[in-house]
Write a structure and sequence with these properties.
By secondary structure, this protein is an alpha+beta fold. Helices cover about 45% and strands about 25% of the residues. The protein has three helices and five strands. A five-stranded mixed beta barrel has the order 1-2-3-5-4. Strand 4 and strand 5 form a beta hairpin. Helix 2 packs antiparallel against helix 3. The chain is rod-shaped, with a radius of gyration of 29 Å.
């Protein structure tokens, strides 16, 4: 073990921390791996074991304390661009077959959809424009 420099052991540790990062997708392992790389650099510059452990700890804790909250905030945000059925909410459609509480047909975004009115007492006649408020399965709920 004395034949291998300390910086090599730190790089092996960084690689070992990269494995659970890939397997579990937990970014904390990546931050610990960066801390191990910082300790390897410290060892490569000739500093002792105490300085290496301090470098590992300071860099790892700093990354977890700073980067993790930023990443959590970004993952909690809704996407800026709505896709799929989310993009259809709020769009206007044209009634093709009378739409009431029990059903009907509309043309929405160039496609024919089954539809029903949000209010069971409301009915929309052919040619009227309606607004899509929700998508339930393959049925558009309109007002």
């Amino acid at each position: 073990m004395n034949d291998i420099d300390a910086w090599v052991w730190w790089l092996v540790g960084a690689a070992a921390l990269g494995i659970p990062l890939v397997v579990t997708a937990m970014p904390e392992f990546g931050m610990l791996a960066v801390g191990a790389v910082a300790a390897a650099v410290t060892a490569g510059l000739g500093f002792g074991a105490v300085a290496q452990v301090i470098a590992f700890g300071v860099v790892s804790v700093a990354l977890i304390a700073v980067v993790r909250p930023i990443a959590a905030r970004h993952s909690a945000q809704r996407p800026q661009l709505a896709t799929g059925v989310e993009a259809l909410k709020g769009k206007q459609a044209v009634v093709l077959e009378r739409v009431d509480g029990s059903g009907g047909r509309i043309k929405l975004a160039g496609e024919i959809w089954s539809a029903r009115s949000l209010d069971a007492d409301s009915a929309y006649e052919v040619g009227q424009e309606v607004d899509v408020v929700e998508i339930e399965g393959a049925t558009a709920i309109v007002i």
